Amino acid sequence: MPRYEEDRIDYLFKLVIVGDSGVGKTSLLLKYVDDVFTDTFISTIGVDFKIRTFDMDGKKVKLQIWDTAGQDRFKNIVSTFYRNAHGILLVYDVTDVTSFQNIQQWLKEIDKYAGQKAKQVLVGNKCDLAPRRQVSLEEGRALAATTSMMHIETSAKTSANLEALFSDLTRDLMANFEPVNYGLSKPDLTPLPPSHKVATGGRCGC
Amino acid sequence: MDPTPLQVSAAQRRMQQMMSMAPQQCEELIICHLSRRLDLEDDKLDVLLNGRGKPGKKTPLMRMASPFQRKSKHEQDKDSMVYADNQIDSHHVNAINKLVLSLQNMEDLRKEGLFRVNGSVTRQEELKEKILKDCSLDLSPYTMHDRANVIKQLLGDCSSPLLLNRHYEAFRQALAFKDNGLETAEQRCLRVVQLLMLRLPKNNLAVCKRLIPLLHTVAQEEASNRMCSRTLGTLFAPHFLCPKDANTIVYHSLLPVAQETAAFMIKFGAKIFQIPAGLNRDVMHFLRSEKRLSDESSGHCTPVSTAVSPVNTSLTFRPRSLDLESDNTTKAELAKLQAHIESLPQNERRKWKKQLGDASALVETTTTPCRKHVRSKSIGSSIRKRLPHFGSKCKRQLSCDSDSQDEVPVTIVNINFEDYSTSTAAIIDCQGRKSSMPTGASPVLTAAPNLHSRRRRRHSDGEGTPPKVECTENTAPSKPDSVKPSTPLSATSIRVNSPHSYAPPLKDINDNDSPLPFSENEISILQPCNRPKRVKQILTQVHKFSPPQALITSKGTISPEYRRCRSRDRCRPLGVLHSPVSVETSL
After folding, report:
1. What is the average pLDDT score of chain B?
2. Backbone torsion region of residue B306, taken as left when φ is above 0, otherwise alpha when ψ lies between -120 and 50, otherwise beta
3. Which residue on chain B is closest to A43 by alpha carbon?
4. Dihedral of CA B320/B323/B326/B329: which sign?
5. How many Å apart are CA B263 and CA B231, to the nearest integer?
6. Which residues form the signal peptide (chain A) (predicted)?
């Protein structure tokens, strides 16, 4: 029994990270899930995902986070992953104003493919690079307010606000979605009632 | 830094010259060289050449696209036209060229994340629209990220990838190469990529010639822009070698190779447009002989003569056994099988042979090589068993008739320089006639028993004839009533000259790299493939079970169809020659 107890989860959320290429989507994910930050500059091919399970307000939550490629050539692949997503993280780079402007394009894309229920979060990444900042916190807040999104500024390098981002989002999602309750997490191991006898040795009726 | 006049090496100029003089022969040469380096069995060559395999046969790419679907016959026929590869249209070429040229400023190229960072989507849409309409557009209002991304978008717009879908298999094989002792894996891959570049349509090649050096430069500035060739390869992979309408699964399965390919090309930059040494040698020889011809005929050099003349190559094919160790196990297993079958009683044995098909043919030839009707086990054999005299007479008559009707003889010249110091050559004449055997110390092997041969070989025998191997095209008369669909219309006869008398001038051959004297020293060229299985059989005898790397048909293509063979065997080896071979290492 305890073996299954460990695997038991209350909530399973599927999150998708989107945004222009080079804004730090993969870095964000790697830092959050594996707590590593690499300065490498490698493009994501198609999509990739990572899973993190943690306790939140006494409930076990499993986050399945999909990291997508920002390259436009991969967009047709990525678009199929918006479906059934519970939360979408729109990431921009605070040191790159065009990535902030392109958030509009991403919103259009999401409207097209994602479900209505999906919770959206606007994430301004690389907030540790203060001297090179091109997008102010206010601008970000203003954009988030127009589409009633959450807004947060993070840094994958210093992991500032990273936990806050995912815990806030998770709390929000827990309020909006029902807990999962599927067979694998809690198998029914109660013994069969004694009246129920399995026919043994007899021939089948057909 | 301005690459506007693309630098053309002497070898490239010669290649262009040959391309304009005799495009067909040029193609043949390239294909010859490609087929030597790649493993193009079955219909892979067809796919490589014209983008379509045999009808009803699916390429790996398509199999992935529809793994479990059952298709109607009609659909299957459509499937055979797999890769409808189109050239990039000239508007796109001009636009891409213009954008590439605008990105020559080192300041721009050192910008972090060039080609990766998105830039403004709205500005890019505008730029793309404008530049396709008007190439003389002023690009100053657009950032380098905009320009770099529009290049990608323009490539993405095209209906087929830049390097064409049909070349996928070739690139895949090339990237999987290992060091072979003579060349490193990279060198081997580079040769194939160089050859494949020559196979690209004009527009695609033009784009490559602009784009690849640019990306190479970007990759060299990795310290400042952090874009290494691998990262760039990832970004360009979908535009280089992935089908445009593929679904996610296919995409993911094809991307690794595409990525590697793109990264490889970017890493080597302009080197991929150089002419490989072996091909260069052949081109030079071609041009020299053309010149001599025109001198001889005192200016009567007509393009017609070049169009039909044979293409000469110093290229030689090696038996696969040298490459593949796994062949040894095949040999061993076949020997075991043979021993087992030999131990069986007669009727049991026959049953086995029937079941085993191909393999039985192998066993058959090793035991009774001169038997006719390898696979037949019909009334004829039972009649012969009871009436021996009747059988033999009747049969000879039959076979003679058919010979004169529709058979093209099979000729194999095989030279196998096993330890680079001795060579073994065998001439096999399908008709059972004696081929002209070499005499004297300087052996000249000639095997041209073609009944239908109409054309003469251009070069006369004798000392000082330049090519080591000469493939002469012969055209067999086409027979509309011919039963066998696989009978080729033309055949090639092969002449091998001893290299003793020939010392090729190597001085100016190699622009690119040093010559590799041992890389091309096995010959196994064979011939009309209307009886391919027979050919295979012979080869297995001569080559000790190793199938040939290539079958050359008249068009210089490698015939994939050495499977269907129904005719009786009258082949037997006429002799084996041993002669020392000098490999030209010096002048």
Report:
1. 65
2. alpha
3. B231
4. positive
5. 8
6. none
Distances (CA, A) of B476 to B47, B408, B480: 26, 8, 12
Strand partners, B444: B497
pLDDT tens digit sequence for B278-331: 888 888 888 888 888 887 765 554 444 444 456 667 666 655 555 555 556 777
Could you read off the pLDDT of B488-533 as tens digits, one per residue? 333 333 333 333 333 333 333 333 433 333 333 333 333 344 555 6
> Is A102–B228 a contact, with Cβ atoms under 8 angstroms apart?
no
Model's pTM, two decimal places? Answer: 0.60
Which span out of B238-252, B508-522, B542-556 was modeled with the highest average pLDDT?
B238-252
Q: What is the 3-state secondary structure (H, E, C) of B108-154?
A: HHCCCCCCCCCCCHHHHHHHHHHHHHCCCCCCCCCCHHHHHHHHHHH
Q: CB contact, 8 Å: A18 with chain B?
A: no
Residue A169's pLDDT is what?
A: 93
Distance between CA B479 and CA B468 in Å, rounded? 33
Q: Which of the 8 DSSP states describes residue B221?
A: T
Distance from CA of A91 to the nearest CA of B (A): 13
Is the distance from CB of B239 to CB of B161 less than 8 angstroms? Answer: yes
Burial class (CB in 10 A: 0-12, 13-18, 19+), A189: exposed
Phi, psi of A191 (to 5 degrees): -65, 155
Question: Searching chain B, which residue's CA lies closest to the CA of residue A106?
Answer: B121
Classify residue A80 by its DSSP letter.
Answer: G
Q: Are A12 and A180 in contact (CB under 8 A)?
A: yes
Identity at B290, one-letter amino acid code: E
pLDDT of residue B183: 85
φ, ψ for residue A153, nearest 5 deg:
-110, 130
Q: Which residues of A touch B235 (CB under 8 A)?
A: 43, 71, 73
What's the pLDDT score for residue B499? 37
Per-residue confidence (pLDDT) for residue A194, from 0 to 100: 52
Question: Other C-beta atoms within 10 Å of A100: how many?
Answer: 23
Taking the C-alpha atoms of residue B445 and residue B414, their distance in angstroms, rounded to an integer, is 10
Distance CA B560, CA B135 (A): 46
| Cβ-defined contact of A41 to B227 (cutoff 8 Å) | yes
Which pLDDT score is estimated for B517? 31
> In the β-sheet with B572-580, what is the strand arrangement from edge to edge?
B522-526, B411-416, B422-429, B572-580
State how far the Cα of A28 lies from the Cα of A131, in Å rounded to an integer.
20
Across A92-107, average pLDDT: 92
Contacts of residue A97, Cβ cutoff 8 Å, sequence gap at least 6: A134, A135
Are A70 and B248 in contact (CB < 8 Å)? no
Residue holding tokens 């098909």?
Answer: B357
The HSE-up count of residue A75 (CA atoms within 13 Å, CB side) is 16
pLDDT greater than 90 at residue B251: no
Answer yes or no: are the C-beta atoms of B520 and B314 closer than 8 Å. Answer: yes
Contact A41/B113, CB-based, under 8 Å? yes
Number of neighbouring beta carbons within 10 Å of residue B9: 15
